[in-house]
């Protein structure tokens, strides 16, 4: 059996993926992969996701330069969620990495406080300069 066949793909042929920073354990982002994205990730050693909005493969960092080197790919106990252990590339190692299109270290920068969502992580880079239009 092909290792890709062990995964329980959803009805759209996708599986959810969590990217976790290797050095800190920080959860950086959530994304989706299809078979081609996962195969490309395993082959390249860099994260390749499926962009649902663009309906195409998305090599993380292709526009922003914030690539993700993949050290480990894990599959959960139900075979329906992936965890990538990554090192973000394309930034000054002395500074926090940027994984979010908002220019923040993590996509999980909002915290529920007193019934309101509050941004609790700073913008590290102007999001207008991160992605091509």
Write a structural description.
The protein contains 2 helices and 8 strands. With 133 residues, it is mainly beta. The chain has a 4-stranded mixed β-sheet, with helices on one face. A two-stranded antiparallel sheet has the order 3-4. A hairpin with a 4-residue loop joins β3 and β4. The N and C termini lie far apart (42 Å).
Provide keyphrases for this structure.
Ubiquitin-like (UB roll), two-stranded antiparallel ribbon, mainly beta, four-stranded mixed sheet, 133 residues
- Mean residue pLDDT: 91
Number of strands: 8
What is the count of structural domains? 1
Taken in chain order, the helices and strands follow as EEHEEEEEEH
In the CATH hierarchy, the third-tier topology is known as Ubiquitin-like (UB roll)
Q: Count of helices?
A: 2
Q: Which spans of ≥5 residues are poorly predicted at pLDDT below 50? A: none
Q: What's the topology here?
A:
Blueprint: E1 15-21, E2 27-33, H1 35-44, E3 48-51, E4 56-59, E5 68-75, E6 82-88, E7 110-113, E8 116-119, H2 127-130
Parallel strand pairs: 1-6
Antiparallel strand pairs: 1-2, 3-4, 5-6, 7-8
